[in-house]
Structures are given as C-alpha cells and as structure tokens.
Amino acid sequence: MGCRNFHQLPDSILKLQNMRFLDFRGTRLTSIPPGMGKLENLVNMLGFPTYLDDRGHAWSSLEELRSLSNLKWLDLRGLELASSGSMAATAMLNSKKHLKILDLTFASRLTDNGMIEGTSNVIEEQERAEVVLSNLCPPPCVECLTVNGYFGYRLPRWMRTMSDFPSLRRLELKDYVCCKQLPVGLGQLPFLDYIWIDHAPSIVSIGHDLLFLSSSSADDQKVTTGTRITRKLQLHGLSRGDAGVAFPKLETLGLKGMLGWRV
C-alpha cells in the first residue's frame, strides 16, 4: 500500500494459495495476472484494478472475483474501464455471503471547481456506467458501502430497493455527479447510523422516497437541510404500519457540495 513505484504483479503471486490480505491502494497497479481467482483464501482485497484484455477472449479482471467467496472487504477501482455490464456481473458480488465492506470507485468526472467534466461520448459512457453499477449489486449482508465517482444519470436497480440490505450501517456517496435521486428507502434500514453525501451537484431535492414513505404521511415530515449536517435524527410518525420511526439508529448525516439543491 502506498508504493507509487509498484505497477505490476509477478505471475508467481498465484502460488501464494494461503494469501488472505492484498492491498494495492496508492500504487500504480493497473492490471493483474489471469488466475488471481485461484487465491480463494483471500479475505481482504483492496485497490483491485478493473482491467480488460480484449486480445483473444476478452478477459476481464472482474471475472477473477467470481470464485473469491471468502471476501469480507472488497475495494474495486477503475470501474469506468469495465466495457459492459455483463463483465461486471461475472464478479458475482451478490453471492458473497461474508462480504461486509464494499467500495466501488469510478474515475471522478468533477473538475476542481465542482463542475461536471464532459466528453464527446458522455451519453454512451453514462449508460455503460449505469449497467456496470447495476450488475455490481452487493449481497444482503453488506454493512459498509461506498460508491465513488458514479456518473450515471439513473439510479442503479439495487439502489431503488435499499430494504434488500437490512444489515447496512454505513453509506457514502462521493462525486455522485449526474444522478438526481438518492437511494430509495434508506430511512427504513434498522441499523443505518452513518450517511455521507459528498459532492452531488445534480440533486435538486430530497423527497419521500428516501424514507420509502406514502404520500399521505407528507404532512408529518420535517426535513432539516444544510451544506454539512452531523446530528442525531429521530423523525417520528413518518410512515404507517410497523416501521414507525425513520432512521432509528442514525447518528451522522453529512451533505456536502450539493450545488443544485433548492432549499
């Protein structure tokens, strides 16, 4: 970790069958040797690079994650390089029953002044990012989730039903560039105690779907807005039935860089 001169893994690493921890963060590693999936005892894999080799059979490094069923912490980098959602799906993240911490990172499209960096193929790149993130659905057991640099316009499918992740305790969205909607139903997660949104310039408003509420409860809703908020929220009477309390465990809420938010 942190060695900027490190840029290539030797093939001999595949012989380390008992390896449990790999950390490539802070290095210049951009690819891995095919066969990394044989290191099935890996528990933590940090800074794992997305890599596509389209020579021959179009092999993707994400394929190597399929057999790593013991992972507890996975940090994926360079997801903008995934050529298709089908290759992202080969990672089979949803089936990893031990995965507690998941970090998903695309290259940021925000400039230093907080504006969105455009390219000639922006629509095509957005659509690809949407499909890639949709196919990297976490398992229900995930507890800490970070998504960096997502520049898709639409919310990925699994973020539309956050009740599928009842163990989630921590959520961070950073450089959330183009999407106008936050994950749906966060208010009903029983253990969620930390939410941090860092630079989401396309968010104009925060609606009822954040709490997964019916429209009839809108009169009871009280929302506190601000550029940066850290406090305990207890919003009572926001939903019907057994839910009762929205954000029952929330201790930290941060909203930073919400340039389009209309208060």
From TrEMBL:
Q: Where are the transmembrane segments?
A: none
Tell me the ranges covered by the R13L1/DRL21-like LRR repeat region domain, including all copies. 62-198
Entry-linked PANTHER family: LEUCINE-RICH REPEAT-CONTAINING PROTEIN 57, NB-ARC DOMAIN-CONTAINING PROTEIN
The record's InterPro entries line, in alphabetical order, gives: LRR_dom_sf, LRR_R13L1-DRL21
What name appears for this protein in its UniProt entry? Answer: Os03g0689833 protein
Please give the coiled-coil regions recorded for this protein.
none
